[in-house]
Design a protein that fits this description.
It is built from 12 helices and 12 strands. The protein has about 350 residues and is an alpha/beta fold. It has 2 domains: about 140 residues, 3-Layer(aba) Sandwich (Rossmann fold), CATH 3.40.50; about 130 residues, Rossmann fold, CATH 3.40.50. Strand 3, helix 4 and strand 4 form a beta-alpha-beta unit. Helix 3 crosses helix 4, helix 5 packs across helix 6 and helix 9 crosses helix 10. The relative contact order is 0.13.
Length: about 350
């Protein structure tokens, strides 16, 4: 009997040890997977890098982007590419964490808070993204791009002396020249404007465009959209009322550039858009900026900060100065305009 009890005790002890080892192995595997996941996103789980020693010496760059479309993506790519060219390579000297709200402005605040906790410098793309992160009183340098009027947006004191810990680049388009270009493409009496009235950048440019169109003695037909869901119906209505359309650098319209461009092209209506990126997908021509180049210009500001040469408050807001006449030849030919006849307008 005693021998039997002894055997049972030994068996039970072995079972407990086996279960304990199994749990320990599972926990170890879970920790290894968590560490792998942390490395895959390019940032350790805490600011001082203690959970990921391999990345502890990397400078952490955050990117807060309102939504994904060609123009904003190009700005981000230009920024990252030119950081690389300046000697700050992803995975070598820097790690990059991108937070994209995919158009949901309600998500910007939590994303901005995350970046401020985990990063050493943050790039905000679009006015809402920049306003959100600036409103959190950041203690790290903040850069912005794709912001039309950073003074009106409350981001900086002035273009030459930003103040605070924030500076960046403006995508202010040459609206007056773009309107003249549109009017030179065909005989026009009624000129359309379409934009999202909820985007401050768009409102500023739309008001300027309206003034220029009316100064030229033309009628303005303006329609606004609240989201990408409204664009198809609004464009279908607009092309039936106008002879040409001007679209500012508007995130909602840029997201639907191909669809809106197709509607106008099938109706034979020329479009001049605020940026080259938009026009290349759904427009006739523009005198515009390259968002990739704008991102690269913002990277130059970042390099000055990262090298310790300047503080953000000491760097003037930069404007797009490389303006080019861009012609979408396929679109122009589709609506009966010879691309060779499109020229820079003369006042």
């Amino acid at each position: 009997m005693k021998k039997t009890l002894l055997i049972l005790v030994v068996i039970l002890s072995l079972a407990i040890i086996t279960v304990g080892c199994s749990k320990a192995k599972t926990t170890e595997n879970d920790n290894q997977q968590a560490e792998k996941d942390s490395k895959e996103i390019g940032l350790s789980s805490d600011k001082d890098g203690t959970d990921n020693p391999e990345n502890s010496d990397l400078i952490r760059i955050g990117v807060l982007q309102l939504l994904a479309h060609d123009s904003l993506d190009a700005a981000r790519e230009g920024f990252i590419d030119h950081l690389d060219a300046g000697g700050y390579r992803e995975g070598k000297e820097i790690s990059i964490l991108v937070q994209n709200a995919f158009g949901e402005q309600a998500n910007l605040k939590s994303m901005a808070e995350k970046l401020l906790r985990e990063c050493d410098l943050v790039l905000a793309i679009t006015t809402p993204a920049a306003q959100t992160i600036a409103g959190l009183s950041p203690e790290i340098p903040i850069l912005f791009t794709a912001v039309t009027d950073p003074v009106d947006a409350g981001l900086v004191d002035s273009l030459s002396e930003p103040g605070g810990n924030i500076t960046g680049t403006s995508d202010q388009a040459p609206v007056d020249q773009q309107v003249l270009l549109l009017l030179s493409l065909a005989e026009m009496e009624n000129v359309g404007l379409i934009y999202n009235a909820g985007e401050p950048n768009s409102v500023i440019q739309a008001e300027e465009a309206k003034a220029e169109i009316e100064k030229a003695g033309k009628n303005v037909v303006a329609l606004t959209v609240a989201s990408t869901n409204d664009v198809q119906q609004a464009m279908t209505t607009l092309v039936s009322k106008v002879d040409g359309i001007y679209i500012p650098t508007d995130n909602t319209m840029a997201s639907t550039a191909a669809a809106s461009g197709t509607i106008a092209m099938e109706a034979g209506i020329p479009i001049v858009a605020g940026s080259i990126d938009h026009t290349s997908i759904g427009g006739t021509a523009t005198i515009g900026i390259s968002y990739y180049d704008l991102g690269a210009k913002t990277a130059q500001q970042a390099l000055a900060i990262l090298s310790g040469d300047k503080k953000a408050a000491e760097i003037p807001v930069a404007l797009a100065d490389d303006l080019d006449l861009y012609i979408n030849e396929e679109y122009a030919e589709a609506i009966g305009i010879n691309p060779d006849t499109i020229e820079l307008p003369r006042r």
